[in-house]
Fold these 3 entries.
Entry 1:
Amino acid sequence: MNNITIVGLGPGDPRLLTREAWEILTQASEVCLRTARHPTVDALRAVPGLHLVSFDEVYEQTDAFADVYQTISARILELAARPQGVVYAVPGHPAVGETTTQLIQRAAAAQGLSVRIVEGLSFIEPLLTALRVDALDGLQIADAMLLANKHHAPLDPDRPAILGQLYSRLLAGEVKLVLLNTYPEDHPLTLVQAAGTQASQTLQLPLHELDHAGSFFDHLTALYIPPLAHAGGYDALQEIVARLRAPDGCPWDREQTHESLVSPLLEETYEVIAAIESGDAHLLSEELGDLYLNLAMQVQIAAEEGEFRLADVLSHIIAKLIRRHPHVFSGLDVQNVDEVLQNWEKIKAAERQTKGEVESTLGSVPSALPALMQAEIYQRRVARLGWPGAPAPDPGVIPADEEAFGDLLFALVAQARARGVDPERALRQANARFAAQVRAVETRAQAAGVTLSALVPAERVTWWE
């Protein structure tokens, strides 16, 4: 005999109960219900001699759903200790959107109790019928409550999606804000209420009106999100690039290498910068697309060569972002941007030490950067440590506004040309001398066991000099 029998009540119409489920429910003397707010329960109330126990009062006593499910699961485990065990009925299928099933199974395994799952139709099958959607055509299924806690929808917009348990207008408003980060505001949606029952109804509306449906929301409401009218997901881009690189693809694309894509990468990057400076959002969208294409091509070449794949690229940067933002993901308390930057440098130093790299403030600055950009990054990085950096000219001759400063730099380039000096090479050499001086200071400090960032300003100047 099973200690715990979890029965799926189906989507709501008693006629959709499986034969096995109906036999177990009607032959039991007592059935515990996660909630009595389910249409199938009315049919169970008519069964002679059947005692129904509902846990609806737990929802009223506890605000957080996680606590509700923990409490209900704990009670089921207590009842399972009885000689007759316990029959526990849940809406739909016990393994679809049913947190208590997962909690009960884990705890029962730890306690040596047996659990039997009795299948039931979930809300998904009637939804597929109502929407005329094939589940094997890339259908994505998610919990509306979990998605509402995101900032970006974890959905591929080129594939259909269903969100279950969209139970309130407030939740719909939170879901709308998350979806707007992926889909256009006029993207068509379909709300389905009570799928699988005679009272089922649908409502079509644009995304920006999702939370305007009023009383349409309840515990049996689900949302259908169709694919974008035109492909717009990263997977679609990577598939096209892979197709272009395939044996029967484009000869030009097949010939590309990491090295051959360097010049186009620089060109596309500067075109993105130009689009940003133009203030033209449509142009920026197009130029970013060209940049994405170059990156997708680099990833595809690497995948073909067995070097790495897209997941490697993304998992690396995801882990780095989480690691370098403990004030966001790990609860570290920071008061301002300066503290964020200081902590950032400490984390990077720890990373370098873990890798066995020689610690250098300027070590990760690319040598191929344009000289002016390189000079600015060099000076910005040492400024974070409070170092004096390069000696400054008389402030009286330095213009305060960006336009005049640009004119001064332009005039310096003209003076360099008149004297036969290559300004780019001259600045690059100045950068090299500055970087050498920084590394010399760091090397001496490491040999002396001194932490430069911990020195008072006067000591920093002494070390620099």
Note: The mean pLDDT is 91.
Entry 2:
Amino acid sequence: MGSTARWRMLAVSGAALMTASTVAACGSDGGTQINVYYAPEQNFQSVIDRCNEEANGRYEIVYRKLPRDADGQREQMVRRLAAGDTDLDILGLDVTWVPEFAEAKWLEEWTGENKSDAEAGVLEGPLSTAEWNGKLYSATKNTNVQLLWYDESVTPTPPKTWREMIDMAKQLKSEGKPYQILFTGAQYEGLVVTYNTLVASYGGQILSEDGKQVVMDQGAVDALKLLKEVASAGITDPSLTNAQEQQVQQGFEAPDSEAAFELNWPYVYAAMQGANPDRAKTFKWARYPGIDGPGRVTIGGYNLGVSAYSQHKPEAFEAALCLRSQESQRFSAINDGVPPTIESVYDGSDAEFVKAYPMWETIVEELQDAAVRPLTVVYQNLSTITSKVLSPPQDIDPEATAAELRDQLQKALESKGVLP
């Protein structure tokens, strides 16, 4: 199907969604309603309720829950924004979507006092994900970095490098102990994140700094070699090629788990307390392993943008600032396990925060030397291509795979590839 036909279909479906949602956009009392389109987060409604109290009737924030998977979230918002849907006020944006949405002119720029408030006290790495071409197009709500999770009854001293981890896994296997290294190896964004972290840890680059050229240097090739080695050494779960975050989490939680190491996001700590209280007692964390020491970990998280089509922009900016305020970020960290972007939340003086989030110091250490995914308006396309070329990881041929990535990614940057 040609691009024009695809665009027309997109606009028609978006218009249909807009018609249906416009009815819901008007409150029964005719007051100002601010719709926030955001991923499912268990306690986010409590944050909204508090912000509505602060608004004191001037407007009401309404939670429009997006699909659970990232692709579904993006698709729903893209369709509506392509049709100019005025129902969208605040957009929950995965950190990789900001350049794409900003370039499409779907996001209102943050300026003046709103910009100052959104930038105040935010860690440098997360803040960079909210910007595009030197301008601020979103406010950071939460960040994320993966940690190394391990069972201290099996490995009292965690590995600091991938080489140490691979050797420890082989030794544990020979001793008949839990030995597997669990990570996201399925053909999706999680595999791309793993690869990007390895590339950054080698000091390599996939794209140029301006995101316009493919680099794929020696560090990127070395990362392919390591990914192939760990995937084909008999020290991963047999279901590696189907493993997303949830499967990795559940694989470590299982009573009969063969896992010694898990590379995953901080939410797994709270999940382990409920799923396997016995193993939770020895469930510990450390910095993500690297090449010569701790790795440079890829930043995840969500930002909040204000739609260019919102009919209530002043209220939307105010509401967004409340939803990602220091108090809101603290609450979400404690109750939903999502790391704050505001540095002062991590000062260690808050006993409730420290108890619920004991890994906070390790998270801060990683954030101070973190890696971001390539900033480009076609990131979604690049991610789809990369995950396909890298899958399954055990079949990687480092030099040939690097050559294929160079070719396919450059075509995508030049818009010669097929958009997902």
Note: Residues 44 and 332 are 7 Å apart (CA to CA).
Entry 3:
Amino acid sequence: MKTTWVATRNARQIKTGYILLIAILLLDFSCSKNNDLELIEEENVMMSKSANTSPNTVLAWNQVMEDLYTFSLNGPGTPPPSASYTWALVHLAMHDALNCIVPRYETYAGVPRDKDANPDAAVSQAAYDVLMAINQLPFAPAYLPQNFQSINALLAETLDGIPDGEAKNKGIALGHAVAEAIMAKRAGDTPNLAPGVPNQPAEGTQPGEYRYLPYPLAPNGMGYALANFHKLKPFFMVTNDMFRSEPPYETSSPEYAADLNETKDFGALNSQVRSADQTELGVFWAENSSRGWNVVARIVRDSYNEKSQNAWKTARYLALVHSAIADSYISIFESKMYHYFWRPITAIQLADNDGNDSTTADPSWVPLLNTPPLGEYPSAHAISGSVAGQVIIRFFDDRDNYELNLDSGYMPGVIRSFSSVSDAVRENSLSRIYIGYHFRLAVDVGEALGKELGDYVYENALKEK
């Protein structure tokens, strides 16, 4: 009897244990299911919030940048590489601010998420703080035009339009944090950002080797060139020489002679063959690439509004365009310093000593516009326009045909029209021949490298989560 009782008791205990285990598992599943549903519901709310957030604040800060960097031909201007640095940081800050509220895309610097922060407050404070941080650089005039009235006004207007409360306060705090993280990530840049005479190799003596060129200083005393911009940490490239170009033509080659004679004829200050239209397009495209291609980016975005009407997509789009332009300058300056090829003004004046019977020297030859004091090959202007155009095309499903009516800070009142982004890219590249800055190979290679870099940035940067 004892054995039977013990067996019966044990069976009852086992049965009770099974029942308790099943109950616990059911309860745990129910709680887990409820937690998952809560997380999914929260995520849906956040996604809905981002999808319905207007891009107007992002676009307002983008427009302020465009206005700041619009200069006339005789204005002080800002060196294009340093301008691209500022444009990239401001737009990355706006992108990160939004994605630290709702993480739709990878961030550049990243700070802890605050899902309750007001997006407009976060975007505005982040953009403003980055601009003010750049203003603290010892050579700030070369990076940021010294007109803060519009920047201060936009910040005040944006924040005044947001109801006081926790969301606004959290947005402002998040903006501060994002800007601090962005600038901290670029903290090592300062030694390589100083404008002035480039830190170049010894002046060349052989055919094709770069000869030093004088260049007028801006009113603020800053030189045009950036001494070590090519040494900057890339924004999205893996290494600075990732897209280094192949060598230029040998000066003794027939291809080199053809290029030299073309620029000699069409790029001279007193050219007898350059048409009025070629003169116009040369000067038209001479303005800052960041400002000029931002105009294109805005037109295309507005033409394709259904793809980018919310703040998150718009911020990512503009951050990709301007980071790609900044990387293009880092990349092309690395190639320029590596090849260290002479400019047309030097090559044409010294053509009798280039080892080529098909070229003839003209010691008095000068270009249409003053040549920057950096190596000729490849063209920085061609790569910066091409990389921007490629990101724009790729972002909008590889569509290229748009009606583009573009203006230029260098030629107020002049409009040039195009039926595609690639047509504008090509004219931008060729413009450097008509102002006497480059040979054809330099603009062709720069344009080709820009397409490669644009594809790389689009496919690898700020990816969707």
Note: The longest helix spans residues 2-51.
